[in-house]
Sequence to fold (208 residues):
Amino acid sequence: MSPSTPDGVEWTPASFLAARRARQPTFVAAVAADTKLTAERRGERHEFRSRLDAFGQLVRLLVQSDALFAQVCYRAKVDLQVRGIPFVPRILHRLAMGSAQVSIGDPVVVEAGVYLPHGQVVIDGLAEIGAGTAISPWVTIGLLVGDITGPTIGRDVRIGSGAKVLGPVEVGDGARIGANSVVLDDVAPGTTVVGVPAREVRRRDGDR
Fold:
């Protein structure tokens, strides 16, 4: 017998995954936002004059940036999965891994406008990534043993190189996670955390 939600509606793993995918941004909106944020964080012009200008900037950044190509592959993978197209999404997943070592699992929901400076990122489980978030190299956002629920990362979060965010934790909007930190507990909005395990060292208002 299939599990049921609180309102009595039965679901299967396939229907649950389909519901997750339905929450993803559209391909065009996601790529446009990713391109704009990538240009902004690189200190380059990010106010595009037209669709043609935006496309030209996308092509330039696909060549010059380290991870945008992998992000576009991921966005295309999700789009094809939503459309129910088989096999090709797995090829796109491999291209993302091969080009920039970016591995984002199927249940992950990534809002439009996320910045990966250099790739080398793993995100998996029932995780969510908010818009404006920057994820540095060698970051893992994933699971603890025995749990399929991953982190919920708020908007405008910055995650330093080598950091690990694990388990069903919530990282609030505007939080900062220091390099090589291991986050196992919730992080309040606007808070900076560092260490193993990560502990709060500063809030945006300067209080310690």
